[in-house]
Amino acid sequence: MSCTVAGLNFLLTTVKEEPAPDFARKFVDTTRHPFPYLLVNIGSGVSIVKVTGHGQFERVSGSSLGGGTFWGLARMLLDCATFDDVIRLTHDGDNANVDMLVGDIYGGAYSNLGLDSSVIAASFGKATMRNDPPELPNFSPCAPVTATDLSATFRQQDIALSLLRMVSYNIGQIAYLNARVHNLDRIYFGGNFIRNHPYTIADISFAVDFWSEESMKALFLRHDGYLGAIGAFIGASSDAPTKIFKNQKQSTPSSDTRHGAKGSREHKQRASQHANSMTKDAMHPVDDLVLTKPALAEDTSPPKPRNGMMEVPNGTAKRKKSKRTKSEDRASALTSPMANGNLTTTAQGNKDSSATGHQKVSTGDWTTVTRTRRKSACKENGQTFASELLFVIRAILHTSQ
Ligand SMILES: Nc1ncnc2c1ncn2[C@@H]1O[C@H](COP(=O)(O)OP(=O)(O)OP(=O)(O)O)[C@@H](O)[C@H]1O
Ligand SMILES: CC(C)(CO)[C@@H](O)C(=O)NCCC(=O)O
Fold this sequence. Notes:
- The two termini are 27 Å apart.
- The radius of gyration is 23 Å and the shape is globular.
- The chain has a domain at 1-65 and 160-242 and 384-400: Nucleotidyltransferase, domain 5, CATH 3.30.420.40.
- It is of the alpha+beta class.
- The strands form three sheets. The protein has a six-stranded mixed β-sheet, with helices on both faces.
- Helix 7 (198-212) links the parallel strand 7 and strand 8 (217-221).
- Helix 2 (67-77) packs antiparallel against helix 6 (156-181) and helix 6 packs across helix 7 (198-212).
- It has helices spanning 2-14, 67-77, 83-90, 102-106, 147-153, 156-181, 198-212, 227-234, 240-251, 264-277, 326-334, 374-379, 381-399, and strands spanning 19-21, 37-42, 46-53, 56-63, 100-101, 120-122, 186-190, 217-221, 289-291, 368-370.
- The protein binds adenosine-5'-triphosphate and pantothenoic acid.
- Its EC number is 2.7.1.33.
- It is found in: Cytoplasm.
């Protein structure tokens, strides 16, 4: 955990365009005031960590309903071989076919409570409503409805989306409650459960917006997958960035007197000076990045820029207004934002997606590639992963010069 926190602290204080709300990629500059914040790390389980400074953090909460719950239930309920297959399946799903909505109970909105008819009243609740004989194959009035009967009556893609929303909304809600208890308004979500999947990101964002009535922001990280590795690399020290400078000075004591300076302000100035002085061929500045479009496997068309930013989910976060519809979700998740209009399509570095070339993108993942490295990153999924890692390591080494 200390490595993960140290890695995130490094990114927040050093890399200009790291966190962004939703997948809008309107980056939030946290380099000046990174603390305090809440980190919600969604691995198999969920750890919720309050971070107040370099090396200062406390695990304030957690939940056993995390990525392992999603993936485990998906394996039980769905015929999917891989995690990415499940995520892909959600893209065609309509959770209203599986979830019990407020409208299913009341025939419309429950206005007095500010609940729109489309609000999920009970995840998977529709399964309790399916006991109508004609709907079930092999139904016998005397026999109980079996799991097999039930699963045959629901579409796999609807189950997948219901599952994703159940887990994501729950985590978003717990995150919001913890942020509120600890008086924090910035919540970073990380961990392999997210993996830059637009639907996952949209769902978590939605939950935080919904419960906080848009007073808090869910933030996602471009280099989420590398937090622990970065933290381990820099030594997970409480003064990690300064430590890098110290080390550098020790190894090359007379090369540059600036290396002796301590403190985050000098550190940042130096990082910025270096970034500005770098040539393309040597090392790219830390903000010289291009975001690539999120795309579905079958989607090979270039993304459409929309005034340089993403269409965020339309449905409001306020309880009184309705939750997003499926089509709004899809539009928001698949319409691509581009910070600077420099668009490219690339293969994605998923662990379990086959490297089929850049025209066959696995799931709707975001990938960042440098302008100078764009072509090579497009070649193979593995290369994208490698170039990402290389970028982070270079950023670390670069700031230490
Ligand atoms: N290709 C994949 N295969 C399996 N799970 C995946 C894959 N991609 C993403 N995931 C998700 O990532 C989760 C595991 O995340 P991660 O590797 O960060 O956790 P962990 O470190 O094992 O968990 P914990 O911190 O609880 O020990 C899985 O439960 C699943 O939801
Ligand atoms: C046990 C860990 C910390 C392992 O990384 C993680 O899976 C987790 O935070 N699980 C949730 C445990 C809880 O309920 O607080």
